[in-house]
Design brief:
Helices cover about 30% and strands about 30% of the residues. The protein has about 300 residues and is α+β, with helices and mostly antiparallel strands. It folds into 2 domains: about 80 residues, Ribosomal Protein S8, Chain: A, domain 1; about 190 residues, UDP-n-acetylglucosamine1-carboxyvinyl-transferase, Chain (Alpha-beta prism), CATH 3.65.10. Strand 14, helix 8 and strand 15 form a beta-alpha-beta unit.
Length: about 300
């Protein structure tokens, strides 16, 4: 198949191959308001294309990745057109070499935030985290159930998060609300053991359809720690206020479960051994080292 800028792409079941030796030309994208990472990739690719590449955007779009290239010597235009805007990149430009600091991933900060929320005497600041509209649903949910998280805006989409121990309260998560936090269901279930009252998580039956029954495995894992947890076809319910005991948990090679079970280890009264954590090597090789250092500084 042929890519939007003239590249030759071969698709295989597990990968896509981009073939060299073809002429890359600029184009006008038909899709409006593409995601930030995709937009940056297209603009970088446009530098090696012949002619101009244009990306249409609505007036409400807050994705301003073109600023990243402008600060590196690349001319990028953003002009009003009709009811929206068009971002244009001319091919043949060179990117100036310089050091770049990349903001941290909000999703990877959640286990640390969860620990600080639930451990008395904690005081945690997560520095320079990228927070994008549409990707902060779990952060907003935590604040809605009582988490004391102050967000300090540093500009350019970067923030410091200041976290204090908090009294988490009960809630019901279902429908679109559950869909938006689907990657953090296990973490929410572990935090629910520390909340006052019940946290009900519904409409997550799709998680039963993967390589294993994610919901069933999460239920059995929490129950093995003597957490007050119930299971039903659409999800689980966790009653907080009862201590978790020690035990042995298997993350089944799933990063979300590995992170959540690590948090459980910090909150339980006994020792928890988490198996299958090799999956974290690809996303955060030093996770357990970081967790240990944070635990030591709290003493």
């Amino acid at each position: 198949m042929r890519g939007a800028v003239g590249t030759e792409i071969q698709r295989e079941p597990a990968r896509a191959l981009v073939l060299g030796g073809t002429k890359v030309v600029g184009c006008v994208f038909a899709e409006v308001d593409i995601e930030a990472e995709f937009k940056l990739g297209v603009m970088v690719g446009a530098l090696y294309a012949e002619g101009k590449t244009q990306l249409p955007e609505t007036a409400s779009n807050r994705n301003r990745m073109e600023r990243f290239l402008r600060g590196r010597g690349v001319e990028v235009e953003r002009c009003k057109e009709g009811q929206g805007y068009v971002v244009s990149v001319e091919g043949g430009q060179a990117v100036r070499a310089l050091d770049v600091e990349v903001a941290g991933q909000l999703a990877l900060s959640y286990p640390l935030i969860g620990a600080a929320l639930c451990r008395k005497g904690s005081k945690l600041t997560v520095k320079r985290v990228a927070i994008h509209a549409g990707r902060r649903a779990f952060l907003d949910l935590l604040r809605q159930i009582g988490a004391e998280i102050d967000i300090e805006d540093l500009g350019e989409g970067e923030h410091d998060l200041h976290v204090k121990p908090s009294e988490l309260k009960s809630t019901r998560v279902a429908g679109q609300r559950a869909e938006k936090i689907i990657d953090h269901i296990a973490l929410l279930a572990v935090l629910a053991t520390q909340a006052a009252g019940e946290i009900v998580i519904r409409d997550i039956e799709g998680l039963r359809q993967g390589a294993f029954d994610y919901v069933g495995h999460l239920f059995e894992s929490l129950r093995s720690l003597e957490a007050r947890v119930g299971e039903f076809s659409e999800g689980i319910v966790v009653k907080g206020g009862f201590p978790m005991m020690g035990g042995r948990l298997d993350s089944r090679g799933d990063p979300g479960l590995a992170l959540a079970f690590a948090l459980a280890g910090l909150l339980a009264e006994g020792e928890i051994t988490v198996e299958g954590t090799e999956c974290l090597e690809a996303i955060w090789p030093d996770f357990f080292k970081t967790l240990y250092l944070l635990k030591e500084t709290q003493r």
